[in-house]
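User: Structure tokens for this complex, please. No commentary.
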Amino acid sequence: MEAEQELEVLEHFHLNSLVDIRLGWFDISITNLVVWMFVGAALFLLIFYLLVIRPKLYPSKRQTVAEMLVEFLKRNMIYNMMGKKNGEKWFPFVSAVFIFILSNNLVGIIPGAYTPTSNPIVPLTLALIVFFTVQIANLRSGGIRGYARTFAPRAVPSWMYVLVTPIEIVSAIAKPFSLFIRLTVNMLAGHTIIFVILGLIIYFKNYLIAIAAVPFAVVMTILEIVVSAIQAYIFGILTAMYIGEAVNPKH
Amino acid sequence: MDTQTAAVLAAGFSMAIGSIAPAIAIGNLVGKAVEGMARQPEASGQIQTAMFIGTAFAEAIALYALVIAFLLIFVA
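Assistant:
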């Protein structure tokens, strides 16, 4: 059998450290994940800045796009789930989460880029932030008794507390966990399919496979763009929903 | 049958069987959403929002199966 070269199809998913910075135990070296995270943020800032430069009272067409984005965040995501008063308070946090995830997801479309949200660490951190935010918002809005009441809602007859309370506790942990898993596996699976299908061309060492593989990869990339936007929207709206549950006055 | 073969086989089964229920769920969900939008086009926006949220929940279940498949292939 002839010698085959080592085919690492998923090598785009490897983290290469570009600049090693270590502080004791902490390894904050600049890997390609960090580079592409900054590229995503810089691109979004640049595009948004170009959209809102020189604002007028009667908005020009590009200013309308930026206003549409903010309006969409406010109306569909936050005021729907949280009401107007709480919405004003929580608007920066939820929109920051949404824009961060959107720009990180979309940066993966660039060929050769590393999607920061495909590494489990980034969505795990975001999910932990949302988890602690929801719990602390719960505590602040109700006190200790109000917090204990969320695990034992009033509408349930007393003998069912022994059933409902463990379910509520598990669901309080399962909701951020599902947020994290949903985001990371959606990003991971989409890119894995594209890499594997394009890797088939190299595996068979035959350019005829490209006639079938490349259109399929194009379609999967378009699907990946749609899935990126939808997953960012889902994360944002679920965050707004959980915070809305915690912050609104309970019956 | 050694461990590696059994793990890969189990990964295939996990993804195949674990995708049946979410596919049925999403199909039902989108069908009902389209029906609702056809009955009352003014409520399209809200129905669309609810449909996307429901699809994300149903899809997450399929993705749990995918996570198990990944774990089986790459760690066992």
